[in-house]
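Good day; I would like, with your permission, to put a structural problem before you. What I wish to show you is a protein chain and, alongside it, a tokenised description of its three-dimensional fold. I would ask you to consider whether the tokens describe a fold that such a sequence might reasonably adopt. You will find the record immediately after this paragraph:
***
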Amino acid sequence: MTKLGEIVEHEIERPDFGLRVIIVWKVVKACLLAVVGVTALVLYNNDLHDVGAGVVRWMGIDPAGPHVTNALGKLAGMTPGRMVAVGAGALGYGAVLAVEAWGLHKRRVWAEWLTVIVTSSLIPLELYELAKHATVGKLIALLVNVAIVMYLLRHRWLFKPGKR
């Protein structure tokens, strides 16, 4: 086995590998939400349909496609007030995810419980959305959140002092 293969195998076999994956997942989501939030706040007073159409043309995507037309139609209905709400909500939730990730990284018990509570609170909404209009993405989001809650509840020893 190569040196890189040995390193990867050692990392995967670490008892806290799952926790590290959760931390990275939370950081990635926090960063994406920060981008969405800042973008929404920067563009809150623009005609989003025109901005979206310009992005679609720049990317070389057919603007007459059904998915593109649907997305551009949703952008046309966004008011400045709603954009500010989306931006603030995205930044707020991104901040919560960043705090969760930092606390999990530092192995704080409060972060474990914060993550379990916040993630569990999303499961009923995801079930509702899945029942309303099922998609593969919604199913994956639900399964990931259930797995995170189950992992943290089953691996509580990761957060006990001196057990690192």
